[in-house]
Design goal:
There is one protein chain. With 398 residues, this protein is an alpha/beta fold. It has three domains: 166 residues, Rossmann fold (3-Layer(aba) Sandwich), CATH 3.40.50.300; 92 residues, 3-Layer(aba) Sandwich (Rossmann fold); 111 residues, Rossmann fold (3-Layer(aba) Sandwich), CATH 3.40.50. It has 13 helices and 14 strands. The strands form three sheets. The protein has a six-stranded mixed sheet with strand order 2-3-1-4-5-6, with helices on both faces. Strands 8-7-9-10 form a four-stranded parallel sheet, sandwiched between helices. Strands 12-11-13-14 form a four-stranded parallel sheet.
Length: 398
């Protein structure tokens, strides 16, 4: 896979924050080696967040985000600040850029408080160091640079690359659940809602992770699964199915073969599976006229049998035997106010980075709104959730 084709959800997101004219855009341009952002002496040149993908070793593929100044003014300035604050919800590493000739002030300290509150690793970059008579020594989380003279930009990249904990860099979706030479069967329906001529991202990611483990992936449609599983000469180590055929495949999969779904694996990979499993029990508490929010991280053309807007609401209504209301969001949309919802059911989050999915989960929990995901909810309503939690750390969660 080429650098530019690496999905944004798989990239480390590095956000650059600070006041207007601190030199955020100049620093971003210096790090990327491109004129990504417009640079000007006029305050507020950067308005909407600017995204750029690049390779930053040892982090690998990253997305750099240049944001508007936190001290922006006026009605439009206030809207820009709100956009900047939302970027924090997807930021894995934060870089606070400060004008070295002026120093830090209350707005810079406010950002540091936000970084700490959201547990975002960060460093402070004092730009325009060429204006100082004496340049102070760098510390563990500070560095003095000059974007104008390209001074210590390499050192800045090195400092940024060391901010992310090691356990965030070496995560697996499924590779830690199988052994070399194991066989995993992937059940992938090809129906009217499947994209033409390609596999969806979770399926691609799981196949790649299986290959990374030195194992083999056998892909099969749900309509051929029963015949394939009965004709194999070896016992598969694992069966992974699309959530929408979870019930069907559970009946056809032998009990001694572990079975799970792409959605459950992604929830574990993104870090919210435990919350999803606990939240799914709220389905039993749903009452007539309760509203359920079904949220997707991507935007796509809805098909007549779309899982989020058609199949899942139909299953919930049938299972609960209640007159439920459903609302839907997609892409970057996610409500700030969740008071009206009795349950949030989220997709696997393959198009969102871990930080943003965890923000949505934590926001739901803080609003006392139960949070689960597609695969967990579907497995629960089919009575196979406990069977589907094949990961050792979730053995006793139910």
């Amino acid at each position: 896979m080429s650098l530019n084709s690496t999905p944004t959800a798989n990239r480390i997101h590095i956000g650059f924050f600070g006041k207007r004219n601190a030199g955020k855009s100049s620093i971003v341009n210096a790090i990327t080696g491109q004129q990504l952002s417009i640079v000007s002496d006029t305050k507020g040149t950067t308005t909407d967040p600017v995204f750029k993908s690049l390779e930053l070793l040892p982090l690998g593929p990253v997305t750099v985000i240049d944001t508007a100044g936190f001290d922006d003014i006026g009605e439009l300035g206030s809207l820009r600040i709100q956009k900047t604050l939302k970027i924090l919800n997807k930021t894995d590493i934060a870089v606070l850029v400060v004008d070295a000739s002026i120093g830090m002030d209350s707005s810079d300290n406010e950002f540091i408080s936000l970084f700490k509150k959201k547990s975002i690793p960060y460093c402070i970059v004092y730009n325009k160091s060429e204006l100082l008579d004496t340049i102070p020594d760098d510390t563990e989380n500070t560095i003095y640079v000059s974007a104008l003279n390209n001074t210590k930009i390499y050192e800045l990249k090195e400092k940024i690359s060391k901010l992310l904990p090691e356990d965030k860099l070496n995560k697996h979706i499924v590779a830690d659940l199988i052994k070399p030479l194991d066989l995993a069967i992937l059940v992938i329906p090809i129906d009217e809602s499947a994209p033409k001529g390609r596999l969806i991202l979770p399926q691609q990611q799981v196949i790649r992770d299986i290959l990374e483990a030195g194992a083999s992936a056998l892909t099969v449609k749900d309509t051929e699964f029963k015949a394939v599983i009965s004709s194999l000469g070896i016992k598969p180590a694992l069966v992974i199915t699309d959530s929408q055929v979870f019930g069907k495949i559970s009946k056809e999969c032998p009990d001694d073969i572990p079975l799970t779904s792409f959605s459950i694996l992604l929830a574990r990979f993104k870090g919210y599976l435990e919350t999803a499993v606990k939240g799914v029990k709220a389905i039993e508490e749903l009452k007539d006229n309760d509203t359920v929010l079904i949220s997707e991280g991507c935007t796509h053309h809805r098909q007549c049998n779309d899982i989020g807007t058609v199949k899942l609401p139909k299953l919930l209504t049938s299972y609960t035997d209640k007159k439920l209301n459903f609302e839907f969001t997609s892409g970057t949309e996610f409500p700030d106010n969740l008071d009206k919802y009795s349950l949030v059911i989220h997709c696997g989050g393959c198009m969102l980075n871990e930080r943003e999915v965890m923000y949505r989960m934590n926001h739901s929990v803080s609003c006392n709104t139960p949070f689960t995901n597609y695969g967990t909810a579907i497995a629960y309503m089919n009575g196979i959730l406990k069977k589907s939690l094949i990961m050792p750390e979730f053995k006793d969660i139910l």
